[in-house]
Design goal:
The chain is mainly beta. It has two helices and 29 strands. Strands 14, 15, 16, 17 and 18 form a five-stranded mixed beta sheet that branches. The protein has a four-stranded antiparallel beta sheet with strand order 1-29-28-27. A hairpin with a 4-residue loop joins β12 (125-130) and β13 (135-141). The longest helix has 9 residues, at 172-180. The radius of gyration is 19 Å and the shape is globular. The two termini are 37 Å apart. Residues 319-332 have a biased composition (Acidic residues). Belongs to the WD repeat WDR55 family.
């Protein structure tokens, strides 16, 4: 499919593809949610425009993948107003809104399974929402600063998160338990935060399995590669940090010559290649182990790339602060392989452990 460019009119902060249809959603600085249908032969068609959230100045919040909630397909969004919203794709109507989903601004939402999502806020808290049980199933006080990114290891049911906060060390018993999970039998997630650390949240035990040591680098983005053996983090300085699975105390390798600008977004293309989005608007294809810049594939002028997403591994989409979202056919831009400063204001608020009845109205 040829490249598709959509003029959104306002600054976008996130984009997301429908997993099986030619639909793409975008979240704007105004708090508006847009949904478009696209194809190669005609201009993109706007299907939906709704005022999803009230705060319009610093809505740095994200559209997570379209989910099947009850019998309706929904887009789930978050906001600095601390709310989480599920919007009906067909009608644009509100399915359910949780006004106090978090005690601070929600700045990251990711889809985990067909019935679970995870959200992170400005105070380092992560919540997992179970749509079947219609409630918050897990709460992790993972970091001391904002959650900059979250990724989900589905085989192990672990969440990885990045932040700036320093992560605690494992006790000998925790290390033994973690070693037993190295075959990816434990359910966990990973997150990154503005406090310079990487955390591993185990969904089976409902505990923070481990945290990395404090890094002078501000961790902004995270992906899992090399068949689960490596975790890659993009940083404020433009360096990529590589962690070995099961050994998160410190990074095992650094890719230092990648970019002089921050790496705000990462998108895994396959187990050996990742697409990076930088503060200078450059989107590049990068090889991992061996670490090399394969080639630049697109750019958003001087505007930062806020988010990258992929339809099916072949089509890539990006959102930047130039009010455009660009879709490109990755296969047309890259060779075959043989084998976006992001400091958010922390908002103080109520106890994030309250209001766990999300989806109760579904």
């Amino acid at each position: 499919m040829a490249a598709v460019e959509i003029d959104l009119g306002k600054l976008p902060f996130d984009v997301d593809f429908h997993p099986s249809d030619h639909l793409v959603s975008a979240g704007l600085i105004t708090g508006d949610l847009l949904l478009y249908r696209y194809n190669a032969d005609s201009p993109a068609q706007k299907l939906l425009e709704v005022k999803a959230h009230s705060e319009s100045l610093i809505i740095a919040n994200l559209i997570c993948p379209l989910l099947k909630l009850d019998t309706r397909t929904a887009i789930v969004t978050g906001s600095p107003d601390c709310s989480v919203l599920a919007t009906d794709v067909e009608t644009g109507s509100e399915i359910v809104r949780l006004e106090n989903a978090h005690g601070a601004a929600v700045n990251r939402i990711v889809n985990m399974t067909e019935s679970t999502i995870a959200s992170g806020d400005d105070e380092g808290h992560i919540k997992v929402w179970d749509t079947r049980q219609q409630s918050c199933s897990h709460t992790f006080n993972a970091h001391e600063e904002y959650i900059s990114d979250i990724t989900f290891a589905s085989d192990s049911m672990k969440l990885l998160a990045t932040s700036l906060a320093q992560l605690k060390q494992l006790s000998p018993m925790e290390f033994k338990l973690r070693t037993q999970c190295n075959d990816l039998n434990c359910k966990s997630s990973f997150s990154c935060s503005g406090d310079g650390s990487l955390s591993v949240c185990n969904l089976r035990s409902s505990k923070i399995q481990t945290r990395s040591e404090f890094s002078e680098e501000e961790l902004l983005s995270v992906v899992i590669m090399k068949n689960g053996k490596k975790v890659i983090c993009g940083t404020q300085s433009g360096t990529m940090l590589l962690y070995s699975w099961g050994f998160f105390k410190d990074c095992s390798d650094r890719f230092v010559d990648l970019s002089p600008n921050s790496i705000d977004a990462l998108l895994k293309l396959d187990e050996d290649r990742v697409i990076t989005g930088s503060e200078n608007g450059l989107i590049s294809l990068v090889g991992i182990l061996p670490n090399k810049i394969i080639q630049p594939i697109a750019e958003h002028s001087e505007y930062p790339v806020e988010r990258l997403d992929s339809e099916d591994g072949a089509k890539n989409d990006s959102a930047a602060e130039d009010s455009d979202t660009d879709g490109m056919d990755v296969d047309d831009n890259i060779p075959k392989s043989s084998k976006g400063s992001k400091k958010k204001n922390v908002k103080k608020g109520q106890d994030p452990g309250t209001s766990n009845n999300f989806f109760a109205e579904l």
